[in-house]
Design a protein that fits this description.
Rossmann fold, 31% strand, two-stranded antiparallel sheet, alpha+beta, Rad50/SbcC_AAA, coiled coil, single chain
Length: 161
């Protein structure tokens, strides 16, 4: 399919809409099929640059792009910490309290990982209390140790150090 044509003045003009073809290649959100270990949803509350954000990356996300200062690193930090990673590996701060949004007492990140054997997503969560410089961890609402989150995330072929 030819997308451009030249007129007598050598101007290039589009013949059809790129968006039409592009949109037809993306499966609608309602029909998305998640594989075992795919991120279904991420919820940030008072975490770094986000006061509240809920995102559903979808089955085809494998890169996060955006202009400088838009929170790309915040997303990666949140995923790593919620899955049991240590702040030391992130190169941002060794203190967990530094990941709470400035001026807030607490922050949290929930990462929902699709589990095909259960037919639902499993919720990994970190809750950070700023003034205590401490964090609590849960899997599906049950309190766990940080090491247990790392172990459980490994069952989904996710490696966090």
């Amino acid at each position: 399919m030819n997308r451009i044509s030249e007129d007598k003045e050598n101007k290039i003009e589009p013949q059809d809409s790129f968006e039409e073809d592009y949109e037809s290649t993306i499966p609608p959100v309602v029909n998305r099929q998640l594989g075992h270990g795919c991120i279904d949803k991420i919820v940030f509350k008072n975490f770094l640059t986000y006061n509240y954000v809920e995102c559903r990356p979808g089955p085809y996300l494998n890169v996060i792009i955006g202009p400088n200062g838009t929170g790309k690193s915040s997303i990666i930090c949140g995923i790593c910490l919620a899955l049991g990673g240590s702040p030391k590996i992130l190169g941002r701060s060794d203190n967990i309290s530094d990941f709470v949004m400035h001026g807030k007492d607490e922050g949290s990140v929930e990462v929902f990982i699709w589990d095909t054997s259960r037919g639902r997503a499993v919720a990994f969560c970190i809750n950070i209390v700023s003034h205590k410089n401490s964090a609590t961890y849960t899997i599906d609402g049950r309190h766990k140790k940080q090491s247990e989150l790392k172990e459980e995330s490994g069952k989904y072929n996710i490696q966090v150090f």
